[in-house]
């Protein structure tokens, strides 16, 4: 059944000038690396002829000579040891300029004049600043601020001395508490003190056992002919199964 269809599938023929085929060939040519470098490969096979005096060659040589460290230092190497006209290093302008620049950049030489002159200060003794400093020192000085009085000598039987002693005794805490010294070291029990008695009374007032009397402690005898008891007996007899 499918044999004819399978044979037909193998004999399909597509026209070579259809748009799809042309587009596929154009895309293949665009992405082909062989076609991309074909012109370059053919140019390399032809070879090239470049003379030594060509402008690109001369430009490359000049750039190499400029960038060459040897060519850069060639003039300097030739001039080494050929300084003429300077009998000493101090008379050489370049060395003198270098020494001057070093002296300007030296911090010790820069501050030498200041360090030499800062210890040679001469101030007159009657200058305003010196007088003001002396007055300030006198004002803040503890020695001039405090002036201790001389020791007075008083007779022991003078009225003011006796009065002062009495005032000291009245203000003395040791004299005030001297009558309690005999109590020092004596033991004392708190039983019977005001605070203990007050605490006991408060405890008795707050004691529920003493405040309330329990029912089982009360003596009670029920009356047998009371209406409630008679009614209860009658109800019990009416409800008795016996």
Automatic annotation (TrEMBL):
<dbReference type="GO" id="GO:0051015">
    <property type="term" value="F:actin filament binding"/>
</dbReference>
<keyword id="KW-0009">Actin-binding</keyword>
<dbReference type="GO" id="GO:0030018">
    <property type="term" value="C:Z disc"/>
</dbReference>
<keyword id="KW-0677">Repeat</keyword>
<dbReference type="InterPro" id="IPR055297">
    <property type="entry name" value="NEBU/NEBL"/>
</dbReference>
<dbReference type="Pfam" id="PF00880">
    <property type="entry name" value="Nebulin"/>
</dbReference>
<dbReference type="InterPro" id="IPR000900">
    <property type="entry name" value="Nebulin_repeat"/>
</dbReference>
<dbReference type="GO" id="GO:0071691">
    <property type="term" value="P:cardiac muscle thin filament assembly"/>
</dbReference>
<dbReference type="InterPro" id="IPR013998">
    <property type="entry name" value="Nebulin-like"/>
</dbReference>
<protein>
    <submittedName>
        <fullName>NEBU protein</fullName>
    </submittedName>
</protein>
């Amino acid at each position: 059944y499918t044999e004819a269809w399978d044979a037909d599938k193998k004999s399909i023929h597509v026209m070579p000038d259809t748009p799809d085929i042309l587009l596929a060939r154009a895309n293949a040519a665009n992405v082909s690396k062989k076609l991309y470098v074909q012109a370059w490969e053919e140019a390399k096979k032809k070879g090239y002829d470049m003379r030594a005096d060509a402008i690109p060659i001369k430009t490359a040589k000049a750039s190499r000579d400029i960038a060459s460290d040897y060519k850069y230092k060639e003039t300097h190497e030739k001039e080494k040891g050929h300084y003429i006209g300077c009998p000493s290093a101090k008379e050489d302008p370049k060395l003198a300029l270098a020494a001057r620049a070093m002296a300007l950049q030296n911090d010790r030489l820069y501050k030498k004049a200041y360090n030499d002159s800062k210890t040679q200060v001469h101030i007159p003794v009657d200058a305003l600043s010196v007088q003001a400093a002396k007055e300030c020192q006198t004002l803040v000085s503890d020695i001039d601020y405090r002036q201790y009085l001389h020791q007075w000598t008083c007779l022991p039987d003078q009225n003011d001395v006796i009065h002062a002693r009495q005032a000291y005794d009245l203000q003395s805490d040791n004299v005030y508490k001297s009558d309690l010294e005999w109590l020092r070291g004596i033991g004392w029990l708190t039983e019977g003190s005001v605070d203990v008695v007050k605490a006991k009374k408060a405890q008795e007032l707050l004691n529920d056992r003493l405040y309330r009397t329990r029912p089982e402690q009360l003596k009670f005898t029920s009356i047998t002919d009371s209406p409630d008891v008679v009614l209860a007996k009658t109800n019990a007899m009416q409800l008795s199964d016996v």
